[in-house]
Amino acid sequence: MECFKVIGGRKFDGKTRNIASKNAILPILACCLAISGEVVLRNCPRLSDIDAMLDIIRATGGRAEWDSGNIVVDCTQSEPRDIGAELTGNIRSSVFVLGPLLTRFSTASVSYPGGCDIGLRPIDLHISGLRKLGAEVIDEGRKISVDGKNMRNSAVFLDFPSVGATENLIMASLLKSGKTIIHNPAREPEIVDLADFINLAGGKVLGAGGNVIVVEGVNKLNGCEYFPMPDRIVAGTLMIASAIAEGDSVIENVDLRHLGSLTDMLSRCGVGITSYRDSVRVRAKKRPKAIGKTETQPYPGFPTDLQAQFVAFSAYCDGCSVMIENLFESRFKYVGELLRTGADITVRDRVAVVRGKKSLSGAEMEAGDLRGGAALVLAALGARGESVIKGLKHIDRGYERLENALSALGADIKRTKM
Ligand code: UD1
Question: Active site residue: 32, 116, 269, 317, which one?
Answer without folding.
Answer: 116
